[in-house]
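Data deposition worksheet. Section B asks for the primary sequence of the deposited chain exactly as it was used as input, without tags or linkers unless they were present during the calculation. Section C holds the resulting structure in token form. Section D is free text for depositor observations; keep each observation to a single sentence. Incomplete worksheets are returned to the depositor.
Section A, Depositor: J.P.
Section B:
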Amino acid sequence: MWLRWIYPDALWRLDKRDRAVYLTFDDGPIPVVTPMVLDILRHYQVKGTFFMVGDNVRKHPEVFEQVRAEGHRIGNHTYNHIGGMRHGIRSYLNNVESANQLLHTDLVRPPYGWMKWEQYFFLRRKYQIVMWDVVTRDYSKWVTARDVFNNVRRFTRHGSIITFHDSLKSQDKLREALPQSIEWLQSRGYRFKLLPVRHPDMVV
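Section C:
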């Protein structure tokens, strides 16, 4: 709750009256892993938002284009997946802008969910900063696919922004937990929505 106080304009959760959720995926695009996620989403006819690392887009442009071509939203996750607390204001903002030369998006999610307040202050002028209210912890070596699924079941509410990772650390767990999570959410009557556009002129 105190982080929400520090970043009051960030999105943590959307309309609490709407039985809808927002699937998000961090750290891609990664060959094999991101296409696997796309296959799962396509099977269930679900769209999500992918917060991408600029350098990964540079290295894997074909995967980036596949995500965009299939109608998913793109978000900025900095160019080098850097933590704001370890960088000055100028270098952090430059890193985000370098990523956006490739991404062309109005959404930003800070790696690790942290940034200095001054970085937040300047970023919020141009971007919608997106956090989450459900983090699946699929990246952790101490967490199983069952744990990931249980985190979705335990913490999801109306308007939840749910965070998965299309990364090598999460690959094996996602293969099992993502379909289970989608099926469970559908069985509970949840609809899947894309994050709203704040600056349409920035989205290509």
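Section D:
Residues 2-198 form a domain with the TIM Barrel fold (CATH 3.20.20.370).
Helices lie at 2-6, 33-44, 54-59, 61-69, 89-103, 117-126, 145-155, 171-187.
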